[in-house]
């Protein structure tokens, strides 16, 4: 068989195995998510089947993207096992082909898929995921809170039945739960400005925003009124503010670098955003590692009970990779390891382990 034909044959088998497994697992995950969204919709007045369908469809790209590393692992294991079971790998090896030539098509597909995912699919899924979360929040909360970070600092908006608050702060001190250089605009329920408040600092205390050294000014009076402490009722807390900031999952690889710079300037913790950025960057290597691990497990000669043994080992490998990923993520978020190192550890360790096993297999 000519090298080009052999490459196309293995590549085609890889696409069929990975694509079929992806379709099956995606259908299962989306069905589970749809059931959860139906439960959510049943608890919200004036919503129903339509909200569950909309939320599921918007979340679908993001949820299925999470499956891709394991799809490549188990799909490649199945593909190599089938080739091995029919003695095709033995024939190819006897023809003088190295193990690297045999896994090159699948490895190339995995690496290219990783590039396509982080440059094309992830920006789409991030945008749709953000729309889904916004939709659920609007339907669930009677008070709508929004936190955004721009070049001029942090902007917060709180809307409820009594009116609306818009707050701008140049910086946020997470340890003290304090906003610095604060300007607050308070509107009534008809969006009429009631007052503007400028303060040196504002502290989130329970469900109250305490503005220190505040200057109050109303539209009817040009003179400002000074007060040492001015309290404003708010539904935002320190923990809630961190949660309301744009979620890392809603930002693509193109948006994350600028957002990280803005968040650092505004004093907002950026650990999760750095972790996501480096995790996305490691996607091609991670998918390549899945193929290498699959080849290391499934290219050996098939013996009696080999299918059962291979299944058990592959499930154990997938579970071990998941545990390693969770541990490295926890280390990065807790500050025990640099974010970049923690995000790249699973891909690098898996690649090195697989290459070592394949070298041992190649040398006999």
In brief:
It comes from Hyphococcus luteus. The protein is of the alpha+beta class and 364 residues long.
Please write out the topology.
Elements lengths: L2 H40 L6 H17 L2 H18 L2 H7 L4 H42 L3 E7 L2 E8 L2 E11 L4 E11 L4 E13 L2 E11 L2 E13 L4 H7 L11 H11 L4 H11 L1 H16 L7 H29 L4 H25 L1
Antiparallel strand pairs: 1-2, 2-3, 3-4, 4-5, 5-6, 6-7
Subcellular location: Cell membrane
Keywords: Cell membrane, Membrane, Transmembrane, Transmembrane helix
Protein name: LPS export ABC transporter permease LptG
What key attributes describe this structure?
cell membrane, single chain, 364 residues, transmembrane helix, 20% strand, alpha+beta, 2 domains, seven-stranded antiparallel β-sheet
């Amino acid at each position: 068989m000519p090298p080009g034909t052999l490459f196309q044959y293995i590549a085609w088998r890889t696409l069929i195995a990975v694509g079929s497994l992806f379709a099956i697992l995606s259908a299962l995950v989306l069905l589970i998510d749809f059931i959860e969204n139906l439960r959510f919709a049943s608890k919200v007045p004036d919503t129903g089947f339509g909200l569950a369908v909309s939320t599921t469809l918007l979340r679908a790209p993001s949820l299925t993207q999470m499956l891709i590393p394991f799809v490549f692992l188990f799909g490649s294991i199945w593909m190599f096992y089938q080739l091995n079971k029919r003695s095709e790998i033995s024939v190819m090896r006897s023809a003088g082909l190295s193990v690297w030539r045999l896994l090159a098509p699948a490895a190339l597909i995995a690496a290219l898929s990783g590039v396509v995912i982080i440059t094309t699919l992830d920006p789409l899924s991030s945008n749709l995921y953000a729309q889904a979360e916004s939709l659920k929040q609007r339907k669930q909360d009677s008070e709508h809170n929004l936190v955004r970070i721009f070049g001029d600092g942090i902007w917060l908006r709180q809307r409820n039945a009594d009116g609306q608050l818009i707050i701008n702060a140049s910086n946020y001190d997470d340890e003290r739960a304090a906003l610095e250089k604060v300007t607050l605009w308070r509107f009534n329920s008809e969006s009429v400005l009631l007052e503007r408040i400028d303060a040196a600092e504002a502290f989130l205390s329970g469900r109250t925003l305490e503005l220190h050294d505040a200057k109050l000014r109303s539209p009817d009076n040009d003179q400002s009124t000074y007060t040492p402490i001015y309290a404003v009722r708010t539904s935002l807390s320190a923990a809630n503010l961190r949660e309301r900031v744009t979620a890392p999952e809603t930002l693509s690889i193109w948006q994350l670098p600028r957002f990280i710079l803005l968040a650092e300037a505004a004093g907002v913790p950026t650990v999760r955003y750095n972790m996501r950025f480096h995790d996305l960057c490691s996607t091609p290597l991670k998918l390549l590692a899945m193929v290498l691990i699959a080849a290391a497990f499934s290219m050996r000669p098939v013996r009696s009970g080999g299918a059962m043994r291979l299944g058990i080992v592959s499930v154990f490998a997938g579970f071990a990779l998941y545990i390693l990923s969770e541990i490295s993520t926890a280390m990065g978020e807790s500050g025990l390891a640099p974010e970049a190192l923690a995000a790249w550890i699973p891909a690098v360790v898996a690649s090195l382990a697989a290459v070592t096993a394949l070298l041992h297999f190649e040398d006999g």
